[in-house]
Each structure stands twice: as C-alpha cells, then as structure tokens.
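From the shared-data thread, chain only:
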Amino acid sequence: MRIATTLALVLLTGTLGAQLLYLFRAEIARDLPGLRPLLASACARAGCTLPYPRDAQRIAIEATELQEEPGRPGEFVLYATINNRADYAQDWPHLELTLNDAADQALARRVLPPRDWLPPDHPAEAFPGRSALGIRLPFSTPDMAPVGYRLYVFYP
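Structure, as tokens:
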C-alpha cells in the first residue's frame, strides 16, 4: 500500500510540474533565457508554441523624422529608431502611422506589421532586449499633402 501511495504521489507531482511548466513556459523563457532552446524543442514535440513577451510599454520610439523626397512630390521616407527597453527579447511590435493635415486631423492611417518595416537582412525572430533598431520606410501619398504625422507602437 505504501509503495502504491508513493508511486501515485510521484506521478501526480510530475503531472502538476509538467502542467505548471506548460502554463508558465513563456514567463520561464523570459526570466531564464538560457532555457528558451530547451523549452522551444519541448514545445515543438508537444505541439505547442513558445511565444515571446509582448510588453508595449517597454518599447519606445526614440526618434522619428518624416521627409519628402526632393523633386518627387507625394514620395516620403519615414525614419525612426525603435528601442526595446526590456531586459528580455520581445515579439516585434506593429507600428501605426497616421498622417495629419495642418489642423492635426488624420488624413490617412496605416498599420504596419513587422514584415513591412523590418530591414530585409534583419532576423525576424524577436526584438533583442536592451537594443535599438533604426528603420527607413519609404511610401507614397500622391493624392494628399500631409503636414504632420504620429507613429505609435502596439501589439494586436
């Protein structure tokens, strides 16, 4: 009877440990980044995913500038520096660009997923902790003449 009770207790404790590991896998990977590869491979075998954190309050837009291309009306380039102030890697955020008129009213708004603004040679897996990325985003607006803009970082 004692052996059966001990075996059941070990089995239940192991099951509870596995459930806690599954439920808190993202937090464990965030706090102990050295375990991320091990957790990712375990998730791949179990058919789950290991998402990166999404803390928009830790992502900041440090500098932005919108320039019209000289001699090319309606052609603009947005320059921005985006900084991950967290100590851990995060999922790449989305950007929302709003173009405004002289009365600060929105002329156009566009949500830009990371694939639209990340440089082609940049790894797309995650935004490394305590790092910054400069972006250059050319676009055209032939039918409008924006005077101002707003750039916002968010996670959908």
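The beta strands are 59-68, 75-84, 94-100, 106-112, 131-140, 148-154.
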